[in-house]
Amino acid sequence: MSTVPKSITPALLAFCGTIATGRPVFIRSKPSADARPSACFDNVARKIERAGGTIAYGWAIWHVPRLYFEAEHHGVWRNRQNVLVDVSPQIANARLILFLPDETATYNPTNHRSNVIAPAAQTTISQEIASLANERSRLIDSYRTNEHMAVTLSRQDQMKVDSITRRIAALLAQAGVIL
């Protein structure tokens, strides 16, 4: 299942408005041959070295209808013609992503920016999924020190993360979502 939003709705714009003042745009995803998953800022830096251009900072926007919105700190390549291209691999080889430009969201490896997750509906399941996902992020982020995350969580925290992940999976399955 793709979590790339299908369209830019008023609810999606309201979510984006809580993060940045820019307007989200759909951009082409064309991963570079040497691009690594979850390394967008490094991927863009290598692309700039080879082909020029600049980096555009912002957020990749994801959405599971009726359940949640998610914004992930992201960087994309701005080519010499000022066209934005996502040069990093995406889940399910998505050909388009929704990108929320935010030039204030510069990359600093010592200042991690957590994903922003919000319910997409005023339902119990939507609110629980968002709450659990945010709790899991806070727990994992607590292991970050400067530019690195500790390799392993404590046994107790790993058990909490696993429990949260199982509960989110159960809620998604209950809602008929298969990721």
Account of the protein in words:
Helix content is 32%, strand content 25%. By secondary structure, the chain is α+β, with helices and mostly antiparallel strands. It folds into two domains: 10-101, no CATH class; 121-174. The strands form two sheets. Strands 1-4-3-2-5 form a five-stranded mixed beta barrel. A two-stranded antiparallel ribbon has the order 7-8. Helix 3 (124-141) packs antiparallel against helix 4 (155-174). The protein is globular, with a radius of gyration of 17 Å.
SSE topology:
Elements: H1 10-17, E1 25-29, H2 40-51, E2 54-64, E3 68-78, E4 84-86, E5 96-101, E6 116-119, H3 124-141, E7 144-145, E8 148-149, H4 155-174
Parallel strand pairs: 1-4
Antiparallel strand pairs: 1-5, 2-3, 2-5, 3-4, 3-6, 7-8
Helix pairs in contact: 3-4
List the main descriptive attributes of the protein structure presented here:
179 residues, 8 strands, 32% helix, two-stranded antiparallel sheet, 25% strand, 2 domains, five-stranded mixed barrel, 4 helices, alpha+beta, globular
Please give the largest β-sheet. 5 strands, mixed, barrel
Supply Rg. Answer: 17 Å
Sheet with most strands: strand arrangement: 1-4-3-2-5
Shape: globular
Low-confidence stretches: none
Strand percent estimate: 15-25%
| SSE ordering | HEHEEEEEHEEH
Q: If you average the pLDDT, what whole number results?
A: 93
Number of H/I helices: 4
- β-strand number: 8
Domains (count): 2
Question: What's the end-to-end separation, in Å?
Answer: 5 Å
Helix content: 25-40%
Structural class: alpha+beta
